[in-house]
Structures are given as structure tokens and as C-alpha cells.
Amino acid sequence: MNNVLSIISNMPIKMRPDNRYEGRLTINGTRKSFYGGTKSEVKQKARDYLLKVENGYREPKKITLNEYIHYWLVTYKLNKIEPSSYTRLYRVYECQLRDTIGKKMIGNITTADIQKLIDEHANPVDSDVKPLALSGLKRIIHLLHPCLEMAVEENIISKNPCEKVVLPTESCMKTQTKEQITLTDDEISDFKEAALSKYKTTGEYKSRDAIILLLMMNLGLRVGEMLALEWKDVKLDEKIIFINKTLQSNLKNFSNTGNAQYSRIKNSTKTQAGMRVLPLGDKTLEYFEILQSYDERHNIKSKYVCATGVGTQNNPRNLQRSLNRVLRQAQISKNVTLHTLRHTFGSTMLRHGVSIEVISKLMGHSNINITYTKYIHVIQEQKAKAMQMVNIC
Predict the structure, then answer these.
(1) What's the rounded Cα separation, in Å, for the pair 57 and 35?
(2) Would you tell me how many other CB atoms lie within 10 Å of the CB of residue 235?
(3) How many helices (H) and strands (E) does the chain have?
(4) Same CATH fold, 185-388 and 62-172?
(5) Other Cβ atoms closer than 10 A to 348
(6) Which of 264, 261, 265, 263 is closest to 245 using CA atoms?
(7) What is the C-alpha separation between 182 and 347, in angstroms, rounded?
(8) How many CA atoms lie within 13 Å of 328's alpha carbon, on the beta-carbon side?
């Protein structure tokens, strides 16, 4: 800032024939003029411009889309949105934009360029291009549109070339959005039996993580919520637990020190509605008690419910490995992920007659429309069964 003030104070300003004032500076090897009706106006324009340059701004003819995206991310997103959201934005830039249209000068990018990028990822011809589902294409637009809109605001480009880009319908795309699967009642029973299996020689449970997986399915927790759950949040006497934080994993480290990725506890859930108090049924209480007894026998001391064998906080990769082992033992061949357990909770509750309003609150969705959209297939399935029972005449 002091350097900017020093440059402005030494900037020569002269009166032009048209009675306007003009100040001139050489910035990054390029002459730049600033005009105004008064000397103060000229100085203010020069000051604003120099501050933008300090933040990474360059003139349109000198700046690529890559350079502007980086400037936009650092200036308008870094430390202003959740690290998980920032990481997602950066990975879109890194994977889909940096080595494609990112190399072009920002002023030369057209709607056709962006449309071509979208179409190439929707139906790749080149084997090196990764096909994306509709959600992946939307992420590209969710980065480019506001970024280029800011470029318009900052007078770098005259209009946003992202405005009229058309996303293809799913039926016209190579990769369809993955349908979230769920476990049937019989598979849930087999899963539970495998998760609670014990060694014949010692009578000890084969896996502590397997009990955690049963808790996730019984409570409908997100993976991050389970990993962040502390014993102080579990009130067994009152038969309730408090869900009030989440673990954000695989965040990109943008500092020059430390590991490339890191995890952090966010002292709130994914959404405000995610902050909730859940009642504990008898079986869920039993699973918590099994964990406590297991920890006493193995001298595991940790503030986290989802702990490792040495008491440290667990991670999604370890849990998925444990889930895969339980699935193999239960002879369930479906491609089940940790999120499948949460989805199974919602689907099973709905099939057993619990109202979608109650399910929405138990799962911490921000609004009931999200719940309805996620479980529309179950609702349609239930309607079909109901119609089979109806005989009007």
C-alpha cells in the first residue's frame, strides 16, 4: 500500500487539450494512462488500478484465462468460502480448465469455446478426455460463470461468454448420473450379522469399525459427521446424540508448507439444518455400549467415537476398507459406499412408513425438496405397490 501511494505521488499529471487531466505510469513495462476531470480523480483511478495489479490483475491482452481464474480464486474465494468448497472449485480448474481453454487469452474466449469444452466432456471423442456426468459439467459452469462475470465487472471483457452455454440432457450424454443404491431388508440383515461376527477362539468382535458402520446406517449420518462425533456428544442416559460438527477430508493445502492435503473439523454440519439432536433406539444404544466395552478391553482412549485402534481419529479410506470386508463376508456384491449406508437409512425409513418430513429432519437436509428428490424412486416404488392392492371394481 505504501509503495502504491509513493508511485501515485510521483506520477506526472498534465492538462490535456480537452481540459481533462491525464496521469501516466509505466507498469510491468507497459505505459498506462489515467484520465479525469480533476487531479484527485486521476490519482484515485491510478490507485485502484495499482491495487488490482498487486492482487494479480493484468491487462486483457496480457492475461490468460488461467491467470484470471487464479486471481479470481485468490481474491474472491480463498478464505471466504469453506475450504472444501474452495478445493472443489480448484480441482475443476485443475482437471478441466487449466490445460484446455485456460491457456487462451481471456478476451479471445467465446461461447463456442466453452460449449465445445462442455460437449467434449459430455461425449468424449478423445480417449484422453474424461467423460463427465451432468453434475461434473455443472461444476465447470459454476466456476466459469461467476469468474467471467467478475471479469465483466472489472472491465476485462465486455460480456460473459458463459451466458448462453447449453448443458446437454442426460439422455444425450455418455456418462449418466450414478443412481444411489440401497440395501434391501435381507441385505441389511446379512450386513448386520457380518458386522457383529466374532473370532471363534477369543469371542472378540472381528472389527471395531464394523460397529461404527452399523451406527452410521442406524442414524443416517454423513461420513464426516460420524468421523467428527465425540463421546461428549453421546448421551446414553438420555438416549440422544448431538450432531454438531463434521470432518472435511482431502482438502488441498494451498500454503507453501505442510502436506499436499489435509483434514479439518468444521464446528458445524454441512448445512444449518444438519445441526440436530437424534434419538437413540435400543439397538443403537446397544452398539454404543459394545464400542465402550470394546475400548475398555483394548485400552483404546479417544475423544472420538470413530477412533482407530490407537485412539486417533479415523478417516474415510479406513472406513471404506472395513466396509468392503464386511460386504465380502456378508456376500453382498453391490458397489456399496459409505454414503450408501446413509441412503439405506432414508430409504428403509420411507419404506417402513415414516413420513418424508420426519426423515428430512432426521437426516439434516436443508429442505424437504432435497429429501423428496433423493428418494423419489422409493416413493414411486411405494405408490406402485399401493396401486397393486387397489381393486376399484
Answers:
(1) 20
(2) 12
(3) 15, 8
(4) no
(5) 20
(6) 265
(7) 7
(8) 6
If phi over 0 gives left and psi between -120 and 50 gives alpha, with beta otherwise, what is residue 311? left
Report the 3 state secondary structure along 312-362: CECCHHHHHHHHHHHHHHHCCCCCCCHHHHHHHHHHHHHHCCCCHHHHHHH
User: Which three cell numbers, joined as nine digits, stand for 117?
Assistant: 469444452
pLDDT tens, the chain, 393 aa long: 667 888 888 899 999 999 999 999 988 777 889 999 999 999 999 998 888 888 777 666 679 999 999 999 999 999 999 999 999 999 999 999 999 999 999 999 999 999 999 999 999 988 888 899 999 999 999 999 999 999 999 888 889 999 999 999 988 888 877 778 899 999 999 999 999 999 999 999 999 999 999 999 999 999 999 999 999 999 999 999 999 999 998 888 877 655 678 888 888 776 676 789 999 999 999 999 999 999 999 999 999 999 999 999 999 999 999 999 999 999 999 999 999 999 999 999 888 888 889 989 998 888 888 887 787 767 676 666 665 665 666
Question: Could you tell me the CA-to-CA distances from 362 to 19, 52, 221, 224, 228 in Å, in that order?
Answer: 69, 47, 9, 16, 18
The ranges assigned to domains in the chain are 2-54, 62-172, 185-388
CA nearest to 283, candidates 196, 215, 223: 215
Nearest to 336 by CA among 315, 346, 322: 322
Contact 101, 109 (CB under 8 A): yes
Q: Which residue has the cell 461444476?
A: 139
* Sign, CA torsion 198/204/206/207: positive
Q: Do residues 341 and 217 make contact, with C-beta atoms less than 8 angstroms apart?
A: yes
**Cα gap 335→364, rounded to integer Å:** 25
Name the class of domain 62-172: mainly alpha
Kindly state the DSSP code that residue 96 receives in the 8-state scheme.
I
CA distance 149 to 157: 9
The pTM of the whole model exceeds 0.85: no
Taking domain 185-388, whether its CATH number is 1.10.443.10 is answered by yes
